Amino acid sequence: MLGRILGRAGFYALIAALVVYAVFPFYWAIVSSLRSGPALFSTSLIPSRVNLGNYVAIFAEQPFARSIVNSLIVAAVTVGLSLAVAVPASYALGRVAFRGGTALLFAFLAISMFPQIAVLSGMFEMILSLGLYNRLLGLSLSYLSLTLLFTVWVLTAFMHDLPREIEEAAAVDGASPLILIWRVLLPVLSPAIVATGLIAFIAAWNELLFALTFTLSSETRTVPVAIALLSGATGYELPWGNIMAAAVIVTLPLVVLVLIFQRRIVSGLTAGSIKG
């Protein structure tokens, strides 16, 4: 009995430690964003005075709202392109038997492990040759190298688990392969599509290296670049309050999306993990 109580207490203590480890940095960013001046360096967990000046400053001193819109556009286009290509590709890899299909799938996984810096120069030349430098579309196309392969991998695993009776019934009714994908399989694939789409959105929303390299003007600058380029008004002093306020603003939408779609994310990411 005592061992069971101690085991349960240890389990809950571990869960509490993990929650604090994961949540505390974001909580501290919120607290720091509500402080200014010397209060920024206080170790108090609760601000003695709430100051919204940092939130006002990041919108007044630079086109931060434009950067948010740019990030939304780039992330949405990236997700749309990734899913538009990944859904038919995963159908071909998961349902059509052809020589080298498994090797191709593992090649996708291996390529996705390449660091961004390894493909940066080649990607820059491609974007430049297409005339898409300093354009949001060029940024979205470059992000496909980060999102498309993972999206194809997850959707293919989900496609493997779908019963073939669904296709057979649709084929008996005269459905073409395109109708089968878009009208029959898409509703069934919705958990995996939501999971992969949200992960692709987060990857595009948070990406910095490509955004810093392929954009030049404030009109095309995304949120991570805008935060990275924040500088102090005097000397080399960084406006930590402004940086924390910007971090809170760009993190809240992701937190809300994850909380809304958490069940679909779990079911989508665990697709293909259980056979039989």
- Which superfamily, in CATH terms, is the homologous superfamily? MetI-like
CATH C-level label: Mainly Alpha
CATH architecture descriptor name = Orthogonal Bundle
Q: What's the main sheet like?
A: none
- The oligomeric state is single chain
- Apparent shape: globular
Task: Give the domain tally.
Answer: 1
**What is the mean predicted local confidence, pLDDT?**
83
Strand content: under 5%
Count of distinct strands: 0
Give helix % range: over 70%
Radius of gyration: 23 Å
CATH topology type: MetI-like fold
Query: How many DSSP H or I helices?
Result: 13
* Helix-strand makeup class: mainly alpha
Order of helices and strands: HHHHHHHHHHHHH
The first-to-last residue Cα distance is 37 Å
User: Which residues sit in consecutive blocks of at least 5 with pLDDT less than 50?
Assistant: 272-276
